[in-house]
Design a protein that fits this description.
With about 240 residues, this protein is of the alpha/beta class. The protein contains 9 helices and 10 strands. It has one domain: P-loop containing nucleotide triphosphate hydrolases (Rossmann fold), CATH 3.40.50.300. Helix content is about 30%, strand content about 25%. A hairpin with a 2-residue loop joins strand 4 and strand 5. The radius of gyration is 17 Å and the shape is globular. The model has no long low-confidence stretch (mean pLDDT about 90).
Amino acid sequence: MTTTTPALEIKDLQAWYGESHVLHGVDMVVRPGEVVTLLGRNGAGRTTTLRAIMGLTGTRQGSIRINGVETIERPTHRIAHLGVGYCPEERGIFSSLSCEENLLLPPQLKGTQGGMSIDEIYAMFPNLAERRHSQGTRLSGGEQQMLAVARILRTGARLLLLDEISEGLAPVIVQALARMIVTLREKGYTVVMVEQNFRFAAPLADRFYVMEHGRMVEQFPAAELQAKMPVLNALLGV
């Protein structure tokens, strides 16, 4: 068995927001090209884990290695330059810019293979091609979500942190996002998803982690999903 450097390796991660101690010794490993889903109830610490990876929490302690590089002391912009793209729940679309202007905004990350071209993105997201001249705020919620993810793909980031991308969206848009995840895996991207929508996440993930009270309490591969359902029902109420 060949050993490869993990795309993401977290050891004993502690994180705080001010006085509030949110993460209590999180351990997690994501291999290159994997799709990993982080499950848990609201408030379990899933979003905080993604934010801590990006250096967006308060104090952080422990170890976060991205492609073997320790990042626990690095500021957010230097973490991003290691090829990490973060899509937060709030999306952050610039309302005064058109769809295409939003796509053209982020710079290409140095040292990466280069991001997807506009044509590649429009092939993956035909809705965005149709709405390329529309203002950001005139896009539907689903189109804004597609745009938020597509904007990251422009940068050349290969490790994608996606927070609740299916939340509140129409089934047809959720299906399009599922196809996107499959395509990204085929292209060799590494994806870490926080998802409340279990039916969306289950068929896409190679492995699952389950969080409770700021700790990882379960991890298992997709092959064990059915066997783990009683445990998941107890932990998540899915």
